[in-house]
Amino acid sequence: MTDVPVHDAATVVLLRDGVDGAGVEAWLLTRVTQMAFAAGMTVFPGGRVDAADADLPFLGTAFTAVAARFGCDEPLARALLGAAVRETFEETGVLLSTPGADLSALRGDVEDGRIGFGGLLREHGLAVDADGLQPWARWVTPAGETRRYDTRFFVGALPPGAEAQDVTSESSSASWVGVGAALEQAQRGERVMLPPTLATLASIVAHPTVASVLAAAGVRSLEPVRPRIRTTDDGSVFADLPDGSSVSIPRTMIR
Fold first, then answer.
1. In terms of CB atoms within 10 Å, which of 38, 136, 229, 241 comes out highest?
2. For the segment 175-206, what is each residue's pLDDT rounded down to a tens digit?
3. Does the structural domain 6-222 have CATH classification 3.90.79.10?
4. Confidence of residue 2 (pLDDT cuts 50, 70, 90)
C-alpha cells in the first residue's frame, strides 16, 4: 500500500448562543457532492493549511499557547490559526480578526484568489484574532484513505455584529443549527457526518452557553484521535475510537 501524505488542516466550530436559552448553535455546512473529500457531508468551516497562512499578521504571542496545547512549533501554530481564520472567512464571510471588521463584500475575491488574505488584513490594519480561537480536538485521518489530514479543531464565538452567510462555492447549504438538533438529525439519517464532526458536536452538546464551551477548552485532552477502520461481514464500515466506542461510516465515503 502506497503511503498517503498527511496534510495539516484546521477547522473552526463557529458557535453562538441560541435565542431564549435554547442552547448552543453551530454553523454547519453541507459540502457539494462534487467535492473530492467528504462530498455531501455536514462539516464545520475549515480546510488544508496553505503555505502563506503562517505569514498572516498577528498581534502579541497568543499562538505560543496554541503551540503548547497542540505540541507543535510556533510556525505551525501560526499556520493553523491563520488557516482557521482564512477558511472561516472564505466559507462564511465572518472575519475573526482584531480589531473586528466586516469585509464580507471581499470574501469571494479571497476565495477565488483575486485578493491575498494576508494583504487584505494588512491593508485594513487587521490581525488574526488568535485569542478568540481555542483548541478543542485533533483528529488524524486513518491510514488507507485516499486523502489524509491531521486536523486541529478550534472553537470560537461568532463576533458581535457579525453574520455568517451561506456563500461558499464548496457547500450546497449552510445554516445555524442547534448542537442537540444536529445530533438528532444525524441519528435519524437526515444529516450525514464523519466521526470527527459527530464526536465534536457530542462533546459540546452538554454546555449551556458558548462561554461555557470556551471555558472548557483549556482542560480538554488534545491527544490525536486516530480511528481504526473496521468492516463487518455485512459490509458495514465503522471507525473504532480510542475510548472503545464506534461510529458508523457513511457508505458514500467508502472508496
1. 136
2. 999 999 999 998 888 888 888 999 999 999 99
3. yes
4. low
pTM: 0.88
Count the neighbouring beta carbons within 10 Å of the beta carbon of residue 156: 25
Q: Are 67 and 77 in contact (CB under 8 A)?
A: yes
The three cell numbers of residue 240 are 473504532
Contact 111, 171 (CB under 8 A): no
**Interatomic CA distance for residues 54 and 82, integer angstroms:** 6
Question: C-alpha grid cell for residue 96?
Answer: 475573526
**CB contact set of 8 (below 8 Å; sequence gap of 6+):** 48, 49, 76, 79, 80, 83, 149, 150, 152
Residue with cell 494583504: 119
Residue with cell 464571510: 93
Q: 241, 153, 243, 249: which is closest to 201 by C-alpha?
A: 153
Other Cβ atoms less than 10 A from the Cβ of 155: the count is 28
232 has a pLDDT exceeding 90: no
Give residue-wise pLDDT tens across range 97-152: 999 999 999 999 999 999 999 999 999 999 999 999 999 999 998 877 788 899 99
Evaluate whether 159 touches 36 at the Cβ level (below 8 Å): no
Among 88, 48, 81, smallest CA distance to 62 is for 81
Q: In terms of Cα–Cα distance, which of 252, 246, 253 is closest to 232? A: 246
Q: What is the pLDDT of residue 3?
A: 76
Calculate Rg over the CA atoms of the chain.
Answer: 18
Enter the DSSP assignment of 235. S
**Helix (H) / strand (E) containing 79:** helix 74-92
First-to-final CA distance of the chain:
14
The enclosing H or E element of 120 equals helix 117-123
